[in-house]
Specification:
By secondary structure, the chain is mostly helical. It has ten helices and three strands; from the N terminus they run ααααβαββααααα. It has helices at about 15-30, 30-45, 45-70, 80-90, 125-145, 190-195, 195-205, 215-220, 230-245, 250-260, and strands at about 95, 160-165, 170-175. It has a three-stranded mixed β-sheet, covered by helices on one side. A hairpin with a 4-residue loop joins strand 2 (about 160-165) and strand 3 (about 170-175). It starts with 15 loop residues before the first helix and ends with a helix.
């Protein structure tokens, strides 16, 4: 509730716009999971989520793992044991989509226990009951030692972004990126691989971000065209591009076209 602030003006001076914004801000805090679900339902094509993404993610994790282990980018990693460890991490990445139905392929497995609301509850009581339910849901994740993949997204679901939590490893795709030009249920398979597939491969390839396992000479050679401050992102980009081509779904020329 610390995110909420009272309107600057006194109550009798509050405009409808100010009141509406205050209510909306409160809803964003108290009903974040429900709002993520609404965004998911609105933006994510069901054909892509159910039929296309699962097999594509599996194929790309395998390709990223192989690229790290023995591909052109393998010389980035200093030792064979480190390469093997990173390659296994790539295979183990779990992908989630913010707002996906719980217990679905890309949803959290823990079931949210909704509060008991009645028609006699006022707005403040509804918010307090919901706040308690959210608090118990979030705290139980910590107390149970749940996987990071069970935690809520770090960013609003409308953002055009994706990220990897390397400690899990777990990747979160936000619905805001599962729209054109990255995704459309009218795209053919090549376009999906070349666009959202590149994002998926990039996130899986971020298991290489442990630069203390890198070969200094390998990094200097492979990433010579990038400033050192961007090397983690550059490595993920290059591994992803090589992995995409290795799947045979997209040519190197088409990868450049789609990514650009």
């Amino acid at each position: 509730w610390s995110f909420l602030t009272k309107p600057a003006a006194a109550l009798y001076e509050t405009t409808p716009t100010q009141a509406s914004k205050t209510c909306w801000d409160a809803a964003l805090v108290a009903f974040a999971d429900a709002l993520d679900r609404r965004v998911y339902d609105k933006l994510v094509p069901e054909r892509v989520a159910s039929n296309m993404l699962p097999s594509m993610i599996s194929a790309l994790k395998t390709a990223v793992s192989a690229e790290i282990q023995s591909g052109r980018m393998s010389s980035l990693i200093a030792s064979s044991s480190s390469r093997s460890s990173m390659a296994q991490d790539a295979l183990n990445v779990q992908f989630k989509i913010a707002g996906a139905p719980r217990t679905s392929t890309f949803g959290r497995t823990r079931v949210f226990t909704r509060p008991s609301l009645t028609s006699k509850d006022g707005a403040l009581l509804v918010m307090l009951k919901q706040g308690k339910a959210v608090f118990l849901d979030r705290m139980s994740l910590a107390l149970d030692g749940s996987s990071l993949c069970e935690h809520p997204p770090l960013f609003p679901s409308t953002e055009r972004n994706a990220y990897l939590l390397t400690a899990a490893p777990c990747s979160m795709l936000l619905p805001g990126i599962l729209v054109a030009p990255f995704v459309s249920d009218r795209f053919d398979e090549e376009s999906l691989y070349g666009r959202i597939g590149f994002v998926v491969a990039h996130e899986a390839a971020h298991v290489t971000s442990k630069q203390y396992w890198w070969s200094a000479s390998g990094a200097a050679t492979l990433l010579a065209n990038y400033s050192s401050s961007t090397w983690s992102e550059a490595a993920a980009d290059l591994v992803a591009a090589e992995a995409l081509v290795a799947t045979g779904m997209v040519s190197s020329e088409k990868v450049c076209d789609h990514v650009s």
